Amino acid sequence: MKKVTKICCIGAGYVGGPTMSVIASQCPEIKVTVVDINAERINQWNDSNLDNLPVYEPGLSEIVATTRGKNLFFSTEVDKAIDEAEIIFISVNTPTKTYGKGKGQAADLKFIELCARNIARVAKNDKIVVEKSTLPVRTASAIKSILDNTGNGVAFEILSNPEFLAEGTAIEDLLKADRVLIGGDETASGKEAKNTLSAIYEHWLPKERILQTNVWSSELSKLVANAFLAQRVSSINSISALCEKTDANVAEVSRAIGYDSRIGSKFLNSSVGFGGSCFQKDILNLVYIASSFGLQEVADYWEQVIIMNDYQKRRFAENIISTLYNTVSGKKIVFFGWAFKKDTNDTRESAAIYVADALLEERAEIVVYDPKVSEKQIYADLDYLNTRTPEENRRLLKVTKQPIEAIQDAHAIAILTEWDEFKNYDWSEIFKNMLKPAFVFDGRRLLDKESMTELGFNYYKIGES
Ligand code: NAI
Q: What is this protein's function (predicted)?
């Protein structure tokens, strides 16, 4: 089996950064170089102040502190890193296509193809190329075709090694992975490449948790895993709407069904809707793949997961408007949270963006507080929707780092991210400073209904009447 001394990862994002940091910390004899074409991002990874890393994850800065400059390096020198490495991970973004065939559903593979062409141009000796990005089924064969036809006659083995980490718990997920999936060819050289990659993970994970499959199963498994997870959220969210119309409580229903070991208790929390860069994009991709094979019923089935998620976000916004006497125009509504979940600064597809957009359409005046998300990011998220001009977004929505001061004279608070700190706020003080009646719309089921009602709030919690 090949002895690995140098690996590189193309893409220093939410996956590439944490994944490679953990590999570097667990494999001190391997030099790990993470490269990106985004120089600003690389500068942030190299910032001496660890608070400025581009990705916030609990435990990440501690790992970077002990490995960076020793066997972990962040660089914009893509060609040099490719040239040196025996294994190249591709961890670039694979967003939903916004143009052409498959627009709005298929994965945009232009960044992947650029990487493949770059590797083909630079590589002078045999390489193992690892798809870490989430990719449609059969992408490996496209990568292989580019590498074999435009390369310098060197041998490439393509592996699929999808990443299952969840943002917010990335380091924990990487260190204690339920499983690692490695897909590759069944040829002798394919098997050897799988074993070579497996040996890296075996530094810290038991071998029986490292699953080897063929490359297509591996690619498809990642899409299916995300589709199943998102489906659970949409399933319980659909029931939350029913609970609100009856006297059932969604938490009690979740608990009751979760005790059934066939169902299990995880991922059954109702909320304002799932976000994040992956669930929606990967399901849309699955929908696209199914319909392109003529499997319309399969495509429709999975699309419903997204439809339900959009409904949940819309329902939350509409409930705010109708509860506030059918008008939010000129009313100050404070958002607690903007990130798509707690313990991350990632806002991609966050429910907060869509709820804000719906309320701004009704001329609400929103003030946003999030402990980890920057003002620049919040405005970028809103501007991206193109619903109104950037000037109007800045006029109607303000960003603050002072949540308690922000609630002065507010009509309502909407909890959009489940940051722990919100639980510890002095809610009786908050109540005093708000306009009355004071409304709290808890999209994360974070607070206790009884105590909030006792304090005097008109408190709405998703999934309870
Ligand atoms: P990201 O957008 O945070 O990072 C991707 C990085 O790749 C960017 O910094 C970009 O500048 C860089 N890049 C793009 N093209 C490049 C090129 N030709 N050369 C060098 N650098 C290039 O994306 P993220 O979230 O890290 O996701 C990466 C992949 O991992 C996606 O396919 C995603 O679906 C998958 N994934 C993401 C998870 C998540 O929680 N974010 C979890 C599991 C998988």
A: Catalyzes the conversion of UDP-glucose into UDP-glucuronate, one of the precursors of teichuronic acid.
Residues 38 and 154 in one domain: yes
Closest by CA to 349, choosing from 277, 443, 270, is 277
**Cα 392 to ligand 1 centre (Å):** 31
Residue nearest to atom 15 of ligand 1 (CA): 111
Q: Residue 3 gets which letter from DSSP?
A: P
Confidence of residue 1 (pLDDT cuts 50, 70, 90): confident
Closest ligand 1 atom number to CA of residue 170: 40
Residue 174 one-letter amino acid: L
Binding site membership of 15 for ligand 1 (Cβ less than 6 Å): yes
Helices and strands counted in the chain (H then E): 18, 14
27 and 139 fall within a common domain: yes
pLDDT of residue 150: 73
Distances in Å between the Cα of 461 and the Cα atoms of 94, 126, 183, 206, 243 are 35, 57, 43, 42, 11
Note the ipTM here: 0.98
- The answer to whether 388 and 311 are in contact (CB under 8 A) is no
Residues 346 and 199 in one domain: no
* Residue 152 banded pLDDT, cuts 50, 70, 90: confident
165 lines ligand 1 (CB under 6 A): yes
Spatial contact of 395 and 363, defined as CB atoms under 8 Å apart: no
Total domain count for the chain?
Answer: 2
Angle subtended at Cα 366 by Cα 363 and Cα 369, rounded to the nearest 5 degrees: 165
**160 CA from centroid of ligand 1 (Å):** 15
Per the annotation, the verdict on 278 as an active-site residue is yes
Does the Cβ of 460 fall within 6 Å of ligand 1? no
Q: Is 13 in the pocket of ligand 1 (CB under 6 A)?
A: yes
Q: pLDDT by residue (tens digit) across 407-446?
A: 999 999 999 999 999 999 999 999 999 999 999 999 999 9
Residue 368 and residue 461: Cα distance in Å, rounded? 19
Q: Is residue 407 part of a domain?
A: yes
Place of tokens 């120089």: 39
End-of-domain residue from the set 213, 238, 255 = 213
Q: Is the CB of 226 under 6 A from ligand 1?
A: no
Evaluate whether residue 237 is within a structural domain. Answer: no
Same domain, 311 and 209: no
Same domain, yes or no: 196 and 318 = no
What is the reported pLDDT for 137? 86
The parent domain of residue 137 ranges over 6-213
Q: Distance between CA atoms of 76 and 88, rounded to whole angstroms?
A: 15
Choose the residue to mutate in 20, 40, 92 for probing ligand 1, maximizing ligand atoms within 8 Å of C-beta: 92
What CATH number has the domain bearing residue 78? 3.40.50.720
